[in-house]
Amino acid sequence: MEVFRKKKRWFGLSYAVVHMQKIKSPALKGIQIHHQREKESRTNPDIQEERSHENYDLVHSGDIEFHQRVKEIIESQKNGTRKTRKDAVLVNELLITSDEHFFKQLSVSERERFFEESYRIFAERYGVQNVAYARVHLDEKTPHMHLGIVPMRDGRLQSKNVFNRQELQWIQDSFPKTMQALGFDLERGEKGSDREHIEMARFKKMAVENETKILAAEIENRKNELLALNEQVPDFIEIRLKKHKKIVEIPTGEKNLFGKEKTKRVEKETGNLLIQETEFNRLVSAVKENERLKNNIQVYLKTDVIQENRALKSELQRLKKENHALKTENQELKFENRRLQTFVEDLKNEVDLLYRQIKELLQERFKDFRVVLRAFSDKIGIKHPKSEFVRLNESEELKMHKREKEIFSVDGLKKLDQQVGDQQPTKKKKSRDFER
Questions:
Q1: Cβ-contact 124, 178 below 8 angstroms
Q2: Which one, of 241, 243, 248, lies nearest residue 268 by Cα?
Q3: Which of 169, 245, 285, 297 is deepest in the core (most CB within 10 A)?
Q4: From CA 382, how far away is CA 379, in angstroms rounded?
Q5: Half-sphere exposure of 53 (CA within 13 A, CB side)
Q6: Which range, 44-58, 218-232, 410-424, has the best average confidence (pLDDT)?
Q7: Could you give phi then psi for residue 14, rounded to 5 degrees?
């Protein structure tokens, strides 16, 4: 049964999942709202709000302003006075998790260690000073961490250079191995093995589910960002104004002694308005801010929301179809797995029966049959070291050795001596009865 248990354990391996997402300035506010649960989510049904207080950040003790934190990281390392491009990638966010089964096997302290070690690995690689946040979410079905890395290198934002193809490959290959070395049962598929086909199907299914969640969160982030921008636009601006007046002379309709028409001086509105300098500056600032927000909203309406949402919806539909196909494949693989397990069990029984028959045959023909059986087993072991026949023979020899050790031990010899002693009086008694 030893081989069968190992085989069964192989089908239960978990994978380390690291998904990278690029975040630009307009999306950062929405990411903040989602990660820090600042508003009720309407697109992610997996969030259990009663558990949101269990979420925590490995970098900060409380909530932060993401824009401000990212700006501080960039300004503290930036070379020169050149402004950051509006469309620059400010944060490369890593979503770090595994499957639900993996976390169920961990204690609370081990789960915390999993995220702490993950944070340490990436913080050391990309610089602790570049970590904007490390938010751990425990209020969803599967625990996970959002690790925000500001891709600063040589005084510049360099997302394409920091997270290039080789780096992403390193994350997929080295991170699981490092975590395994730290005591976590996380692996990648073994190339060319039967186990790879079954495990990769399960991994793909989990990846599709995570991707679907990420896409839903991305849509929610865009909505949150639009709402945040909308809230910043005031409904009205109250400005204190004063009507401008001037003194003018108007005819009265009367004439003086010299026959000249009389006039009088009166105040008349000019149609202009007077405004204090402080009020004027406040109005100019409001106009500029309104223009900036209007441009941001236009960007969202033209690209980030409409076009991107169409792409996200299309991608979501594709992922749903793929998920359905994977579910079907998963059911087929489960059936195949059960069939293989039954087949393996039958083979084990046949090998066990064959081993017993060979042992009995050798026992009848050879006095020292154990030596012959061992030699036969060794020949099989040369080509098949993990053969069930070899395992059975080793188990039998171990049991035999254990029995011999017990017999020739001090307690065993005493027990044997006692058994011989118990038999002697019986023989003497029979002898005396015969003499009578």
A1: no
A2: 248
A3: 297
A4: 5
A5: 1
A6: 44-58
A7: -115, 160
Residue 403 is encoded by which pair of tokens?
């029995």
Tokens 């007077």 belong to residue: 274
Question: DSSP assignment, residue 148?
Answer: E
**Which of the four pLDDT bands, split at 50, 70 and 90, describes residue 6?**
very low
CA distances from 156 to 66, 83, 204, 206, 208 (A): 19, 11, 36, 36, 34
Q: Which residue has the higher pLDDT, 221 or 40?
A: 40
Average of per-residue pLDDT across 59-80: 93
Within its chain, how far is the Cα of 336 from the centroid? 29
Identity of the amino acid at 277: E
What tokens does 152 get?
């600063």
Q: Which has the higher per-residue pLDDT, 423 or 340? A: 340
pTM over 0.90, yes/no: no
pLDDT category at 8 given cuts 50, 70, 90 is: very low
Q: Tokens 């998920």 map to which residue?
A: 323
- By the 8 A CB rule, do 244 and 268 touch? no
Residue 312 to residue 211: CA distance in whole angstroms: 11
Domain extent listing, the chain? 2-232+305-333, 241-290, 381-436
Phi and psi at 233, nearest 5°, equal: -85, 115
Taking 80 as the threshold, does the pLDDT of residue 204 lie above it?
no
Residue labelled with tokens 């004027």: 280
Instruction: Tell me how far the alpha carbon of residue 32 is from its chain's centroid.
Output: 18
Among 177-181, 211-215, 274-278, the minimum mean pLDDT is found in 211-215
pLDDT exceeds cutoff 70 at 26: yes
Phi and psi (nearest 5°) for 348? -60, -40
> Architecture of 2-232+305-333 per CATH?
2-Layer Sandwich (3.30)
What is the C-alpha to C-alpha distance for residues 293 and 229, in angstroms, rounded to an integer? 7
Give the integer Cα–Cα distance in Å for 190 and 112: 28
The alpha carbon of residue 413 and the mean position of all alpha carbons in its chain are separated, in whole angstroms, by 62
Least confident range from 200-209, 343-352, 393-402: namely 200-209
* Angle ∠(109,111,117) on CA atoms, nearest 5: 100
